[in-house]
Amino acid sequence: MTVPTDPNCFLKALDGQVALIVGATSGIGRAVVDAFLRCGAHVVAFGRSEEKLRELVASSQSFARALATYAGDATDHHDLDRAATLAVDRFGKLDTLVCTVGAFDYYRTILDYDTETLSSAFEELFRINVLSYILAVRASLPYLLRQPSSIVLTLSTASFYPEGGGVLYGASKFATRGLVTHLAYELAPRVRVNGVAPGGTIGTNLRGLASLREQDKRVDDATGDRAQRIQRSVPLQVAATPDDHTAAFVYLASHRLSRVVTGTIINSDGGRGVAGTVRVAHLVEEIS
Ligand SMILES: NC(=O)c1ccc[n+]([C@@H]2O[C@H](COP(=O)([O-])OP(=O)(O)OC[C@H]3O[C@@H](n4cnc5c(N)ncnc54)[C@H](OP(=O)(O)O)[C@@H]3O)[C@@H](O)[C@H]2O)c1
């Protein structure tokens, strides 16, 4: 049985807010753009593909006046500075930032790397998964600090447990979890900072690293029967889609719904945490 997320229950939750969404052209980020527009936000969608941004605009015609796009590289602070400025120029302010950029390491253990590929993979993965978030926050802060504001970062079950990825992906996602805590502390009381930690999610475009020649390899294609594996690995026995996570982003971004919430992470992961740190697939098989 699938229970669809009802975006209408959050209608108007983001009325009057202006959001920069970095990593907006596919997967979870794309679903967040749609949800934010439906919930009343004005959105600057940041992506690296002009073609995908044009498709986004074409499929969001009913929100044309609430949507602007910026094509750039999320690891380049100049691009992020210009995107933050675009939000203010176009919509008058910037009070919400969402970071959803990401790349994957295909579960590589430390022994799967030689020392040279370990360094280049580390640099590329941490630039995408960690530095892009830090740069987006820094670029947005001059505007976020002008009024009560909100930042939502995209973490992962790999921010908590070793099975969500390999050693580099896991370390990068632990780092973004650290960012939530540090930034929530440093930026209070003006800016709330929270995270959403999705579990395995199907129907996204998550891909590997160019330094490992895996930039065109999609996680969904590459790991066969992924939906079934995800279902077997979590107590709720569900494989999430991007839409399953959007309500968590809306809630944490909304000044109206979560004005007293900061430094929090919503684990949107089928209950992975209640099964402890051993391989839950085995536990679920035993009890079912
Ligand atoms: N999929 C999962 O199972 C899962 C589980 C837990 C957490 N997450 C996390 O969720 C977030 C979103 O992932 P997703 O699964 O939705 O994958 P996705 O569809 O690939 O989304 C990631 C987005 O990041 C963009 N991006 C990557 N590098 C960029 C750069 N340098 N500059 C600008 N944009 C860049 C991609 O652009 P393009 O469209 O041009 O490729 C894409 O739109 C990531 O942080 C991921 O780690 C995913």
From TrEMBL:
<keyword id="KW-0560">Oxidoreductase</keyword>
<dbReference type="Pfam" id="PF00106">
    <property type="entry name" value="adh_short"/>
</dbReference>
<comment type="similarity">
    <text>Belongs to the short-chain dehydrogenases/reductases (SDR) family.</text>
</comment>
<keyword id="KW-0614">Plasmid</keyword>
<protein>
    <submittedName>
        <fullName>2,3-dihydroxy-2,3-dihydro-phenylpropionate dehydrogenase</fullName>
        <ecNumber>1.3.1.-</ecNumber>
    </submittedName>
</protein>
<dbReference type="InterPro" id="IPR020904">
    <property type="entry name" value="Sc_DH/Rdtase_CS"/>
</dbReference>
<dbReference type="InterPro" id="IPR051122">
    <property type="entry name" value="SDR_DHRS6-like"/>
</dbReference>
<dbReference type="GO" id="GO:0016491">
    <property type="term" value="F:oxidoreductase activity"/>
</dbReference>
<dbReference type="InterPro" id="IPR036291">
    <property type="entry name" value="NAD(P)-bd_dom_sf"/>
</dbReference>
<dbReference type="InterPro" id="IPR002347">
    <property type="entry name" value="SDR_fam"/>
</dbReference>
